[in-house]
Sequence to fold (789 residues):
Amino acid sequence: MQQDRQELIRSLYNEYIEMYAARDERLTTRFSNNFSGYTGSGDFLVKNSDEWVEITRQDFAQIPERLRIETLDLSFQDVSDDVVVVTAFFHIHLPIVDQILSNETARLVLIFRLENDDWKIAHSGISIPYSSGQQDEIYPLIAMREQNRKLEELARERTRELSARNHILWLNNQVLEQLSQNAPLSRVLDTMVSIINEYRPGMQGAVLLVSDDGRELRGCSAPDLSEAWLSATKCLPILEGFGSAVTAVLRGETVIAEDVATHPCWAEKREKALDLGMRASWAQPIKNNEGEILGAFTLYKRAPAVPDIHDLALLEDYARLAQMVIERSRLAEALHESQVLYRLIAENSNDVVWVMQYPSMQYSYISPSVERLRGWKQEELSSHCLAASMSPDSFRQCRDVLAEHFQRVNDGDMTGRFIHIETEVLHREGHCVPIEAAATIMLDYAGKPTHAVGSSRNITKRKTAEKALAQVREELANQLLFAQTLINAIPNPVFAKDCAGRYLMCNRAFEELKGKSPEEVLGKNAFDLWPQEVAQVFVEADIALLDHPGSMAYEARIVHRDGSCRDGVFSKAVFHDSNSEVAGVVGVMMDITERKAAEEAIRNMAFVDPLTGLPNRRMMEERLGQMLALAQREKRKLSLLFIDLDKFKVVNDQYGHNAGDWLLMQVASRIQAVLRASDIATRIGGDEFVILLPDVSNTEDAVLVAEKIRAFLEKPFIMDDGVELDISSSIGVVMYPDLADNARDLLHSGDEAMYRAKKSGRNAVEVFCKPTPDTEYVMRRGLQCNSLH
Fold:
């Protein structure tokens, strides 16, 4: 869009917004006679400009004061020379307290059209996500005022709640102050309960606690209640009918007795309560953080009463505060007992327990067991500092470690609070004693370190044992080095795996085979190092060996680091740990690729025709036997073609045996080009070939293959020197099991049919048939001189 057009559209929008916000009457003159629009509070289309002017004036009359328009986003469209469109998103701020409209995003679409050299507003559509106004309002002022009224009511309610919270906070402070002074539990609870009557006149409170055996509820604090009531509630069985507090403990929930005279929970104590003027009783169970019931907090009134939400909140808050007081008091008692216990432990422990101040490094406490460790009595070391306890080297070591940990704590790293160090301390007799020290840095209320609490242990025996162990390890390492050197000298790959199949070790030959370092092998499994199909073989063999421990040998393929596949033989055995449990598998590989190649060469010499590369007569008879067995088992048919070359002797006599050999190789190649993958071509000697067709189901298909071979072989063979050799073939066809059901008969019948083809003129295909009175012994089918016989 051109800059001048963009500035024009912006000025039209700004002029509209300014007149609308200023409630300027001139805006009513800017609408086109052919106008349409949607109002923000309406859901219908206005198609009359006069009606729109009235709506605009109604808008200005409803809110005559200036509005504030907060534009969020603008987009312009230059539709044509005389039509432009503005889309705007903005907040509308009314000149009243507004929590609704000012938070919503309005969308305005304005279409300006040039009419008689003056830009007019042809369409206005505003969308504001608020409910429609009432009583023809343009803006929902009635809804806003109602909302403001509700907010004021909510503010008053929140003020009342805040006042209650402030009271609870003040009460908390009072209670905490007494707790900090180690005041007895009953005094703290009396302070808490006595404040209720001052805060809520007409209410009296009481705290009752569950006995240690859990069978009774005993009065603990009720400073504003009479001695007669205290005596009556001194010890209550936790059974139904003994009052609101007992029922709250039994049920574990708030119990409200609006009128003691009628409520069933007062059945056993009703008369006594009424005699003492108790008419309403509300009770809240006091529970610890684990949900265990500690007691009950109860509020009494001398007239029947139903608690409001503030009374219920007060009940819950005081019960929660009572919980804190009870638990803190009990915790203080337990802490005192534990301090006595820990001091007893520290003074009778073999380890030296100590407290060191920071940053002076001065001991403020050392347990009596220091005499066994260092020869000095406890009182003799009470004023010692760290430096006086160690040699200069040991002191520097400890000083640096402590400085690092204290600095980490000062930097906010709380893991630095925990210290562990091994060092030496001086004995009274002058020698050094090796120790192991563990300490925790203690913090003040601001999180800053103040001192360290720790213990030290004599580790002389352990150090002696470690030294002996180090010597054993050194000897073992030498033995392992010797063993590794020996294993690396073995030219074949050697390896060991654990029971999970992870490699534990390998020798240099294994590394060279895989082209990987020990770090790339150890910890990996077979699937990490070998192709999946190879790894699967290895894993299955390992599993079988682990299931039946012993040794095994098997052949498998090996993938060399260069990607080539080689043949290998594996010898594996299990090995055991110190507990005589099977710990894994150890094995050695031997590359037998060359041996297998030699075996294959020998096999080829026995089963393959060396001239044509086709199976020889021996392999043909073996394959034929396999095919016959399969065909018999699956009740299938197969066919045998017996081929003899015509005029082959002429080629040998005229051009020599080299030409004859070349011709036999070409014949083999042409025959294979005709056959399918499942068919087998063989040379059984001289110029005779046998073709096995295992997937032929009828004679016609077999004849079709034979015809293709015959036609292919009658084409001239051109030697490299340009000499053209012309031969043909005579082919006998026999079907299994129709005409022969064993290998000997198939070959004999095929040979008979081939002989018949030769006798009938050569270059022909003959099908062997059993003789009948109306047929010859052999039916002849063939082509001779490109004619079908």
